[in-house]
Amino acid sequence: MIKVGIIGATGYAGGELVRLLLGHREAKIVWYGSRSYVDQKYAKIYQNMFQLVNDTCLDDNMEEMAKQVDVIFTATPQGLCASLVNEEILQKVKIIDLSADFRIKDVSVYEKWYGIEHKAPQYIEEAVYGLCELNREAVKKARLIANPGCYPTCSFLSVYPLVKEGLIDPGTLIIDAKSGTSGAGRGAKVDNLFCEVNENIKAYGVAGHRHTPEIEEQLSLAAGEPVLINFTPHLVPMQRGILVTAYASLKKDVAYEEVKTAYDRYYEKEFFVRMLEKDLCPQTRWVEGSNFVDVNFKIDPRTNRIIMMGAMDNLVKGAAGQAVQNMNLMFGVDEAEGLRMVPVFP
Amino acid sequence: MIKVGIIGATGYAGGELVRLLLGHREAKIVWYGSRSYVDQKYAKIYQNMFQLVNDTCLDDNMEEMAKQVDVIFTATPQGLCASLVNEEILQKVKIIDLSADFRIKDVSVYEKWYGIEHKAPQYIEEAVYGLCELNREAVKKARLIANPGCYPTCSFLSVYPLVKEGLIDPGTLIIDAKSGTSGAGRGAKVDNLFCEVNENIKAYGVAGHRHTPEIEEQLSLAAGEPVLINFTPHLVPMQRGILVTAYASLKKDVAYEEVKTAYDRYYEKEFFVRMLEKDLCPQTRWVEGSNFVDVNFKIDPRTNRIIMMGAMDNLVKGAAGQAVQNMNLMFGVDEAEGLRMVPVFP
Amino acid sequence: MIKVGIIGATGYAGGELVRLLLGHREAKIVWYGSRSYVDQKYAKIYQNMFQLVNDTCLDDNMEEMAKQVDVIFTATPQGLCASLVNEEILQKVKIIDLSADFRIKDVSVYEKWYGIEHKAPQYIEEAVYGLCELNREAVKKARLIANPGCYPTCSFLSVYPLVKEGLIDPGTLIIDAKSGTSGAGRGAKVDNLFCEVNENIKAYGVAGHRHTPEIEEQLSLAAGEPVLINFTPHLVPMQRGILVTAYASLKKDVAYEEVKTAYDRYYEKEFFVRMLEKDLCPQTRWVEGSNFVDVNFKIDPRTNRIIMMGAMDNLVKGAAGQAVQNMNLMFGVDEAEGLRMVPVFP
Amino acid sequence: MIKVGIIGATGYAGGELVRLLLGHREAKIVWYGSRSYVDQKYAKIYQNMFQLVNDTCLDDNMEEMAKQVDVIFTATPQGLCASLVNEEILQKVKIIDLSADFRIKDVSVYEKWYGIEHKAPQYIEEAVYGLCELNREAVKKARLIANPGCYPTCSFLSVYPLVKEGLIDPGTLIIDAKSGTSGAGRGAKVDNLFCEVNENIKAYGVAGHRHTPEIEEQLSLAAGEPVLINFTPHLVPMQRGILVTAYASLKKDVAYEEVKTAYDRYYEKEFFVRMLEKDLCPQTRWVEGSNFVDVNFKIDPRTNRIIMMGAMDNLVKGAAGQAVQNMNLMFGVDEAEGLRMVPVFP
Fold it and tell me: Which of A13, B48, B266, B283 is deepest in the core (most CB within 10 A)?
């Protein structure tokens, strides 16, 4: 039984980790960390867990936690994990960091986009970018996982095969993304009130969202050359789900089959990436509550562009689900354990 | 392995049966019946099942199905199950009917409220009303289960202990219920369009909803005397969930503890019924996607009334989940198998 | 031109006052008061007003405001208006208080339910309860209006004729109300986040909501005897709208026509109260954005009860619209001026 | 008083025309046409109009209507207006066609994208594309107006000044649009049910939506050269609103001020187009229920692209509002008459 500690267990991503791990047959949460709710019953904060979780929230003490658990998930804002991690801890416990601290290899890029000093740059190199479909073997051996961001996961998986295979010109890539509101977290902000979010859609972070350099770094690695993109996220009046609509110019005339083959090369054996049938557009509702990413594309011969689409649950494959998938790989458990939930509809 | 056939597999309740049974370790769906979609891939109708279900829809042929399966779920409008069932079939297969056909013992009441002639009145007596918490032992031995309606399940479980224990005057009972829109089914009706349902709440079926006699019959059995109630359902702009707010006059002065004890007497050992802590109101979101019913009450000493509340997922405990719970009881499987899902939040 | 000042112009009710008054041909807002946003452009807070309102927010200074305006609306939490009002101010300006400060005649009841000391009890007697359809003549002569609460307006108008005419037993009255989320205000609270409100319904303030004594006082006046009721509000995932479903026992056998006649006696000439045709249930969406209250009823001969229903926009007839209606009456303007908006659908 | 007839008065756009015209001081609807609801009270179909509209629906008889009214709005699917219009009618009455029949000058393009034969190609040349801000003078003199599509209006107004001024390379233009569900109409389709639309976002009509050639034609006229674009619409779980996010490469290095000046050149005097302040992103909720289009842009120096954004109410400026604006121009009435509604929030 893998003993699990969660730092930040009362945020939305933390809550989703708890939901998923309660259904995991080889893991058990032994430390519900939540600075804001120390000594309160976890099920008081998340009433859905009533009679399922009887534990009380503990402080976010990584050092103490490291003595008691096999793996720590940090589901906290950026900066916290980097400020707590050290060699002694890493020798005792594996860490899966859901924040951005270890995602970007160039520390100056991280510090510029996030506006904070990195407190543990010495671990950036070691940290494995935990996009399981991409870095499966490295994940298995890692001590420290940088669990990918929600937008980057969906964006990257939607376009990766075509960048890798050189079918599209990466310099023309434009990613227009739409997210449900749980991505904004459980903080009490006017902007996230029901009456502000409902019956509304807006872009935000235009030409400046922090997930941009993360996507660019991964795309650059895939392309073998530096890639700059436009990435525009939008807030949609729904709880869960990310939809990516990506545009790029094709490098040459291609037919549907050729592109399909390129996607299949990377995803055919991937359980969690579903290439839809021709002409079906991914919809967030078909993956809700699950770890699946649905992907498809459409060629526009009029403009010689290709439109690539992906849909995903931001709290599952975009956060807690991918984190559990990483844990499974790190501990040699079946990769899909605890993640076989059928998407919920309606 | 229990072999399962579903008649009406492409409605919302049918889809939920599929979702639940895919996670059931001792059952396997072998017949996806759907008159409207014969020969089409099931996963084309419910794209969430893509790569999880590869089966094709078959006709709703109960006779043929009875030869191949151990249990048939009928998730169809009232009238169909009664028109198909016969002795030959019942000798081969167990039937769990999610429609109203066998819920009401007095056939004239059924025919009056539903406005159709009952085609198999000879099985009404035999059919067991499948509210598992109430009729567990009878369910285990049944051939034919009348799976309770969504409103009746939530209404009955919210008030049952107090009726049974004689704490409230059943003649004063008023049940004000609120339901998500999935209860209205997947039929293409203007009234159920997004633009008609959203930003709206309305009562419907006032003083005439068909679930009224079903609730009354069960309450009458519990009270030991005929009970007439007011039952008013409302349509709420959400997908899933039923909330019941019930009012009744107390027969005598009671304290919180006495009422709590009465509830505990019936529910303390019930996994799926959760009595909340004092003063917490049930919310549909804390049970969403799960088979739980959350129940609580509040005494109003000013009016000498008690307000009883219950929250439930109409597609799970109110339909498919309870149907699976009945199946588990009938086949001697752990009652909660396939139903241990943690409620999804947010 | 009536010069208007608003204290609390940046709350939801304040914003709605601005929206309505911008379309009013005989009133002009000259003071946008908002303690939290002093010196900020009003249209920065409510971007819908961009290029329509160029004013800057001022402090909530009632004394200074009284020198410059003809009428002050206080759209603030309870306690504020009572703490600011005095004789000097009332001699200069009319006040329409949207808070609860002057709604309840018995100051001890106010202090008990609201948990605060009343700072200006000497004006309670003078203040007119501004339910225009009930107190039209008194409103015209008033200096100080207690603008009714949202739930009380909808509850009272739904049941008033039958209480007044003695058709129902007021001691049996149960009011089950449902409200959109704008009623909870624009404060940054976790409970009102999109992800907490959406896909959810819950009761709150059960047997203890502060609007209870306000409803009871008005009903007692109508009945000519003390009336105690059960009132249960619910939070619905929509922005605007209140629906009331009220239950009471009939005092005698009545036919539809007799009840209809009773309603017509009070509402036939009322522009803003619409008695629906037989068997149509009020829906919040048919009044959204307007000052209308839609009312209807259904007799249940089985239980000898009557179900009374009303639908209203909580921000219009339940707050800002009724306040403007009161202003119109006080200043001798056409009662419907600024309030003839057609309900918005969808 | 302008006498108005509406063909298709019971669709969502028709209903919005009625709402707007009821508040118009110089127009009066005398013919509510609706083939599906002939002889039924209009207010039965749209209960929000109860006691505001007492008329009964008549047939969609354009010939008869032309004798009784000054202007006909056709709010029907494509094909109908073209099949009814003729010289005799056009000599009696002005026509504002909300369908696509006369929007595209090249009849072969129309017939290809819409898949139907054009029944009145002889009027295409004469018809004026009723984007008031673009063709104001021509509209004033027109007999037949092609009222623009919802997506084209928002798309065009978001990018027009930069195309016209040659600041962007029109060949790089990508338009990613998001719409509320009312754009899909009031037809009873499973895809538009609440339970299918809610908690979901999807692209549709990818690389093939019919509004593409309409946008391209107008952009080509503005650019002075043929323009092909990518246009991708998405369905968002909200009732009203369109948001456009458009991307293009800048032809040269430009600063914020230069671009702002270009927009101002075209929009500064336009009441209904609001250029937002720097860095504010348009949101659909700030224009809901109104005829405004909110526009803004953001330069990305990293990629040398510009992101242009526009938000609009699809039923108002995207359909009925723009139609009324056209009527006002045609009849010499104040262009904003009946359209001064403040956006509704929340």
Answer: A13
